[in-house]
Design brief:
The protein has about 170 residues and is mainly α. The protein has eight helices and no strands. Helix content is about 80%, strand content about 0%. The radius of gyration is 25 Å and the shape is elongated. The N and C termini lie far apart (about 50 Å).
């Protein structure tokens, strides 16, 4: 394996600072103690080698944003289920209070669903699917043998593309 030159190490580091740390050319130049022009040259060389810094940064941002939204919707649904369970299991609460809280919870869930569907339907859909699959697997885990669970999980992986194509 060939040893990297200082310039190549700096170029890779500059790429990482730009893509992963969202640093500007000026900030990178200051950090690496080189000129802005040198950073521009690193970027040009990387682009010629198939590492377009702007595309890499945008791709990273889009991926993180999508994952954050999917997780946000999944967490929201999980919190809703947990709140519903706590209301149902609270023996000190009157039936009327429970009913009132469940109606309020349902209203909140409905509003969040509307917002989520309008803001990012794909992330909302994937969040719902994720929670649904987790709930089903958790429930099945109690009833099925290890071999059956392995088959269920294998099947979920096999049909994941179909699951992602569901319309809600």
């Amino acid at each position: 394996m060939a040893k990297l030159s200082n310039a190549d190490r700096n170029r890779i580091l500059a790429r990482s600072l730009f893509v992963d740390a969202n640093k500007s050319y000026v900030e990178i130049a200051e950090t690496l103690e080189v000129s802005d022009k040198t950073i521009a040259n690193y970027q040009s060389k990387d682009k010629a080698e198939g590492f377009d810094w702007l595309t890499l940064r945008a791709t990273k941002h889009i991926k993180e944003t999508q994952e954050t939204k999917e997780n946000m919707y999944s967490l929201f649904i999980s919190y809703m289920y947990q709140s519903l369970k706590e209301i149902r299991e609270n023996e000190k609460m009157s039936v009327e209070s429970k009913a009132q809280m469940i109606v309020s919870l349902g209203d909140s869930f409905s509003k969040m669903g509307k917002v989520a569907r309008q803001e990012d339907p794909e992330a909302y859909k994937l969040g719902i699917i994720k929670v649904t699959v987790e709930k089903i697997l958790s429930s099945l885990k109690k009833e099925l043998s290890v071999e059956c669970m392995k088959k269920v999980i294998e099947t979920v992986y096999e049909i994941q593309e179909e699951l992602a194509d569901v319309t809600i």
